[in-house]
Amino acid sequence: MPSLRIISGELGGRVIKTPIKKILKPTPSRVREQLFSWIRPELADTQCLDLFAGSGSLGIEAISNGADNCIFVEQNQELNFYLKNNCDDLGITDKTEILRQSAENFVRRVKDKKFDIIFFDPPFNKNYISALVPKIIDRFSKQGTLIYIENRTSDEKYNFDALELIKETVSGESNGKLYRVSL
């Protein structure tokens, strides 16, 4: 069974199991390591949102490094099953809420919920960034919210007025950008 390793924090070294079928585009471990070295000092007592959660590696890594909780949004039934089992195996179900629905549906229906950190790692071949990020900023962020967006290095560049680019990392075809909301 394929797996990912949690890189750091209380759960560092533990395994996140993933399906055998290639339905995931997990954030490369080098990118996760870089991302969490950037945000670790700000993770204590945070509320996180992991949209297009997939394996849940970003939200689980955040909990491992001190986040209070994370809402995972993943539409795929099989990935949802693995995500629930992984959270149970890791003993973090009390810090998680796992929703089986599309990110678009979550963004459209949920209002007045603010997060400190938002992970947004959509499938590469869709136009989710330009369609959803403005709504995510409007509905789920507050002054200072950190938003991590991962896309393909060859994808178009995005510019959102309320987002200040803090850091950027590239690994293969993955481009990860960390922004801070400045309203």
Quick tags:
two-stranded antiparallel ribbon; Rossmann fold; alpha/beta; seven-stranded mixed β-sheet; globular; 183 residues; 26% strand; 29% helix
How many domains, as an integer? 1
SSE order, one letter for each helix or strand: EEHEHEHEHEHEEE
CATH-assigned homologous superfamily:
Vaccinia Virus protein VP39
CATH names the topology as Rossmann fold
Give the proportion of residues in helices. Answer: 25-40%
CATH class: Alpha Beta
The best one-word shape is globular
Specify the structural class. alpha/beta
Number of helices: 5
CATH architecture verdict? 3-Layer(aba) Sandwich
Regions with pLDDT < 50 over 5+ consecutive residues? none
Kindly report how far apart the N and C termini lie: 44 Å
Integer-rounded radius of gyration: 15 Å
Layout of helices and strands, plus pairs?
Blueprint: E1 3-5, E2 15-17, H1 29-39, E3 47-51, H2 57-64, E4 69-73, H3 77-90, E5 96-99, H4 103-109, E6 117-120, H5 128-140, E7 146-152, E8 163-171, E9 174-181
Parallel strand pairs: 3-4, 3-6, 4-5, 6-7
Antiparallel strand pairs: 1-2, 7-9, 8-9
